Amino acid sequence: MSGRNGENNHTSIALFVLQNFSGDTQLQVLFLTFFLLLYLMALAGNILIIVAISLNPVLHTPMYFFLTNLALLDIFCTSTVLPKLLEGLLAKSSTISYKGCMAQLFFLTWFLGAELLLLTAMAYDRYVAICCPLHYSTRMSQSVCIQLAGSVWVISVVSTSVHTGLMAQLHFCGPNQIRHFLCEVPTLLLLSCSPTTLNSIMIVIADVYFGVVNFLLTIVSYGFIIASILGIRSVEGKKRAFSTCSSHLFVVCTYYSTVIYTYILPGSGSSMENGKVVALLYTAVSPTLNPIIYSLRNKDVKMALRKIFPFVKIFCNVKE
């Protein structure tokens, strides 16, 4: 279906065609199996974390409160993208309506922005816990944590509302083939028949705030944390603390670099192909690995999982 734009005499696009990973049938089956496993693992891991933290009063602390929010964001983010991707691989072709594309863009941008802000809040929580332990209970009180988490969700939804609203004002008259497996701001701007200067300006502003500013705040927080760790006399204590920090920093650097690459370097050609791989990192791989990196390696979480789900004992082999 298509409508007419009387002012510009252009045919409006009502359906977009998403690009699959491969036209080869065998490779599509391989991709389908791989992405389905990733999706199921991401759902299972994050749901286990949420249940374990919710049902164990010992884990009702600021750190695990933020981890619960992270798990929710990972579930929402991967569920915004992977079901449509799996549908396209199963049908060997994928289309998405204009409204569906705008909806995917809205929710994906919301959850990506929220996760960037949440990583900053988590870094601040660890900074207060390690560098200012005597003030931790007051600086990270329940009300403060709720305000921080609420700000994460509200600021990101305001940002995505602006981007989606500006995108909805653009006119798409053809072609309708998106050189990606999902709807994102940079890829859709390439198809617009309207001027996109304002959209590009807002992307730069969002990149600076969500990407650069929050990344610097996170790195500065971990800088103070590492400086405090160096003051620990126990060698074993240093190893344990550095192990935790290195895992967190790996997630932070990977997530920020992939998102910034996507929204600062949309480009075309080979960069678009690289963009597919990069998008997979933050929509599929990261939600799968986060429960392992942040929670399932944690002794307290393992103990909680063993008590609630006896069948996971083999995966959580820690001493009582």
Automatic annotation (TrEMBL):
Organism superkingdom: Eukaryota
Cell location: Cell membrane
Keywords annotated in UniProt: Cell membrane, G-protein coupled receptor, Membrane, Olfaction, Receptor, Sensory transduction, Transducer, Transmembrane, Transmembrane helix
GO terms, molecular function: G protein-coupled receptor activity; olfactory receptor activity
Pfam families in the record: 7tm_4
Membrane-spanning intervals of the chain: 29-51, 63-82, 102-124, 144-162, 208-232, 244-265, 277-296
Membrane topology recorded in Swiss-Prot or TrEMBL: Multi-pass membrane protein
G-protein coupled receptors family 1 profile domain span: 45-294
Assigned GO CC terms: plasma membrane
Family matches, as InterPro entries: GPCR_Rhodpsn (IPR000276), GPCR_Rhodpsn_7TM (IPR017452), Olfact_rcpt (IPR000725), Olfactory_GPCR (IPR050516)
Family of the protein in this entry: Belongs to the G-protein coupled receptor 1 family.
Function of the molecule: Possible taste receptor.
Name used for this protein in its record: Olfactory receptor
Protein source organism: Cavia porcellus
